[in-house]
Design a protein that fits this description.
The chain is mainly alpha-helical. Helix content is 45%, strand content 10%. Helix 5 (175-185) links the parallel strand 9 and strand 10 (191-195).
Length: 420
RNA sequence: GGCCCUAUCGUCUAAUGGCUUAGGACGCUGGGUUCUCAUCCCAGUAAUCCGGGUUCGAAUCCCGGUAGGGUCACCA
């Protein structure tokens, strides 16, 4: 039975790196019919942040990464919060103390390094070895009575029957310490797999200060969770058929640690934007309308959004672009003069539009193009001025479609306003 | 600095010793479609870090350099 876990500490918000690790753990568990456990490592009381726990749950849930056991939903190996397992750790400390693998130092307790060379066969990197003297006599219980990370992890993984430890590369140097504890305890050592670390453009590991790592940022920027997940799948892993767009379900079916690369990939926003655009394009129009409506908290009329969506669906890469693309449909903007013939163009357009009897999409086309011909305008210039007059921008969805949706009165009003 | 990990187009990656004039995708450039922008279609640009080996044959295996990253807490 395969059992994996992620073990974030509630010290802030939900980190994209946590999501990445969770994604691969989730896939490995599901692929192998195992369980995915979410454990909270909150043994540093000073660093625990109110609300961080909730942010982790929300972030992972948003991405569709669900867990089988965890602090919020329980499970047969709980509790899943380290601060609630203090008694458990004490028993293991006693074992180590009794067998001479640990000793008291001041008010703390240290592990006594047995000086054994350590190696393991990492599922993504192959054999990794450390000389025994690299491990110092590290603290396993702090003077406040709380266990340290390296100790608590081992005890929990043993008790929670974790079979595969799939985590970030930054934990490689912790692994020999943890293996030393397993050996001292005479417990079975799990399989380790160290994933590459996600990096920024400077090739450094993603930093809180200057990189977008808070999952909530992605949500508020208008990324779809499916798109973010798809993008994350592509970092360090590749589809066997070299497909770029696929869903979580397909990822799970095809996932294997053997296909995970060792080099740390760079988090490339450009590619994320492209993927997000792909998802935005293939989503159902009604669903997209609902998403936009919800995204803007009901600020824009749903009815109008639904009419506009067909015009902007393949122009959007992020939900946030809705306003720059179609904001003028809701609010008048300052008109923009583009060509020297602006007044002539707008007057002619006014004539053409006022002359339309039945407000139909096709009538607008005909009326406008006839005007262009009879006046001998340059088609591109005329429509550009028309667009700039109505929207205040040189870039909009097809302007005749916009005119149709805006309605005759509003169009005439805007045209005359821009002549002042 | 010690220890550890890594190294294919700018970026994500494929190729697991021969089928490779190193493939795909993002980006970028050019073209087609078009009232603008986008979508879509077509084309182009661009890489095996360097040096030694092993082998009939190396992006792929080995060694050495170099470069990048990670880690060296009573943080996790």
């Amino acid at each position: 039975m395969v059992r994996v876990r992620i073990a974030p500490s509630p010290t802030g918000f939900a980190h994209v790196g946590t999501a990445y690790t969770a994604l691969f753990n989730y896939a490995f568990a599901k692929k192998n019919g195992g369980q995915f456990v979410l454990r909270l490592e909150d043994t540093d009381i000073k660093r625990n942040v109110e609300g961080a726990e909730k942010a982790i749950y929300e972030g992972l849930t948003w991405l569709g990464l669900t867990w089988d056991e965890g602090a919020d939903i329980g499970g047969k190996y709980g509790p899943y919060k380290q601060s609630e397992r203090l008694e458990t750790y004490k028993q293991y400390v006693e074992r180590l103390l009794d067998s001479g693998y640990a000793y008291r130092d001041q008010r703390a307790i240290r592990f006594k390094n047995p000086n054994l060379d350590i190696f393991w066969d990492d599922k993504v990197r192959g054999r990794i070895s450390f000389p025994g003297n690299e491990i110092k006599d590290f603290v396993i219980v702090k003077s406040d009575g709380f266990p340290t990370y390296n100790f608590a992890v081992v005890v929990d993984d043993i008790l929670m029957k974790i079979t595969h430890v799939i985590r970030g590369e930054e934990h490689i140097s912790n692994t020999p310490r943890q293996i030393a504890i397993y050996k001292a305890l005479d417990e079975k050592i799990p399989t380790f797999a160290h994933l590459p670390t996600l990096r920024n453009k400077d090739r450094k590991k993603l930093s809180k200060r200057r990189d977008p790592v808070d999952l909530r940022i992605f949500r508020s920027e208008g990324y779809l969770p499916e798109a973010l997940v798809n993008f994350l799948c592509l970092l360090g892993w590749s589809h066997p058929e070299e497909k770029e767009i696929f869903d979580l379900k397909e990822f799970v079916e095809l996932f294997s640690l053997e296909r995970v690369r060792k080099a740390g990939p760079i988090f490339d926003m450009e590619k994320l934007n492209w993927i997000n655009g792909e998802y935005l394009r293939k989503i159902q129009k009604s669903k997209l309308s609902n998403q936009i409506f919800a995204f803007y908290g009901g600020r824009y009329s749903k009815k109008l959004i639904s009419k506009i969506v067909p015009l902007i669906q393949n122009r959007m890469r992020k939900l946030t672009e809705f306003e720059s693309l179609a904001g003028f449909m809701f609010n008048r903007k300052k008109p923009l003069r583009v060509t020297d013939n602006f007044e002539r163009h707008i007057k002619a357009a006014f004539d053409a539009v006022s002359g339309i009897k039945k407000w139909e999409r096709q009538a607008i086309d005909e009326s406008l193009i006839n005007k262009v011909k009879s006046e001998g305008f340059k088609t591109g210039d005329f429509f550009m001025d028309l667009r700039a007059s109505l929207s205040g921008s040189r870039v909009t969805p097809p302007i005749n479609d916009c005119i149709y949706i805006l309605g005759k009165d509003e169009v005439l009003e805007r045209l005359s306003l821009s002549l002042k």
